[in-house]
Amino acid sequence: MDDTYTYDLLVVGSANADLVIGVERRPHAGETVLGSDLAVHPGGKGANQAVAAARLGARTALLARVGDDDHGRLLLDSLRTADVDVSEVRTGGAPTGVALITVDPSGDNSIVVSPGANARLTPADVRDALPALRSARVVSAQLEIPLDTVGEVVRLLGPGTRFALNPSPPAPLPPEVLAACDPLIVNEHEARVVLGDTGDGAAAGERSEDWARGLLALGPRSVVITLGAEGALVADARGTARVPAVPVSAVDTTGAGDAFTAALVRRLGAGDDLPTAAAYGARVGAVAVTRRGAQASFPTADEVARATAG
Ligand SMILES: Nc1ncnc2c1ncn2[C@@H]1O[C@H](COP(=O)(O)OP(=O)(O)OP(=O)(O)O)[C@@H](O)[C@H]1O
């Protein structure tokens, strides 16, 4: 493999501070309840996927925007500690994005997100980052930043660079963005929204082959549907293939999708075919669900090798 690329992966996406409080129950309108001590964790899908890929050994950079505030500095510190190149992380324009999370005793989350600086990552920021964009073997994005910004990434991609999109939170996608995806990576809920499907998803597992074919018909060169403990499904012009999950005792599925996606794009960049890269994603996702937290749960390549066979 040639070494003309500076980065194995450039992630274009969000960085959030996750502010978590445990509560006995959620307050009704107008009510106050007391909760646990506040825990502040680095998060956001862009930062999570960048950290997960770097921990697996990929030379990774993040194009993102944080506020000129304590949360922004916390995020930059955690990215640097994970060996993510932060030279394309912009600062200022709005407060750092924040997710206010309450967790009840059964583990159910209620979340309010303030996108903050993430919403100010503009197409102009992408143009300013053109040298980095052209220096990456793979570019990946999610949708916690403006769709126009993702559109500009697609427009400016170099001819040899592979693009992967995880449309989370999901939205209908313009044809030029869909056409650039190789792969489009969705869970069942995201698949339904991208397809414009209004069904109840009751037979989701059985319908995933149909969804994969429907998604491919929208234009991406390949599709990956993640199915939680059921593993994943990959599809391209050659057909569809099931990727089994690695059986584990899950303790916290937070960040499983980010771990899977980062591992998948990392391996695609290293030359694996789609089923092989997805199988590695399943191994990394499986390790992540055996640990608590999001970024805290992402394993190194050695830990993946020790924890899972293959
Ligand atoms: N309980 C589990 N046991 C083993 N592997 C799992 C489990 N949950 C998830 N995985 C692995 O992680 C991958 C991604 O998980 P999932 O489909 O839940 O993504 P997601 O819905 O985007 O997750 P999240 O939004 O919680 O990060 C799965 O395809 C699977 O390979």
Automatic annotation (TrEMBL):
Catalytic residue list: D258 (proton acceptor)
Q: State the free-text cofactor note.
A: Requires a divalent cation, most likely magnesium in vivo, as an electrophilic catalyst to aid phosphoryl group transfer. It is the chelate of the metal and the nucleotide that is the actual substrate.
Any GO BP annotation = D-ribose catabolic process
SUPFAM superfamilies found in the cross-reference section: Ribokinase-like
To which pathway does this protein belong?
Carbohydrate metabolism; D-ribose degradation; D-ribose 5-phosphate from beta-D-ribopyranose: step 2/2
Q: Where does ATP bind?
A: N187, T226, L227, G228, A229, E230, G231, G257, D258
Q: What is its EC number?
A: 2.7.1.15
Which residues are recorded as binding K(+)? D252, T254, A288, R291, G293, S297
InterPro entries, A to Z: Carboh/pur_kinase_PfkB_CS, PfkB_dom, Ribo/fructo_kinase, Ribokinase, Ribokinase-like
Cofactors required: Mg(2+)
Q: How is its activity regulated?
A: Activated by a monovalent cation that binds near, but not in, the active site. The most likely occupant of the site in vivo is potassium. Ion binding induces a conformational change that may alter substrate affinity.
Which superkingdom does the taxonomy of this entry point to?
A: Bacteria
* Protein's cellular compartments: Cytoplasm
Domain annotation Carbohydrate kinase PfkB: ranges: 9-300
Q: What does this protein do?
A: Catalyzes the phosphorylation of ribose at O-5 in a reaction requiring ATP and magnesium. The resulting D-ribose-5-phosphate can then be used either for sythesis of nucleotides, histidine, and tryptophan, or as a component of the pentose phosphate pathway.
How is the subunit organization of this protein annotated in UniProt? Homodimer.
Tell me which HAMAP family the record gives.
Answer: Ribokinase
Q: What is this protein called in UniProt?
A: Ribokinase
Gene from which this protein is expressed? rbsK
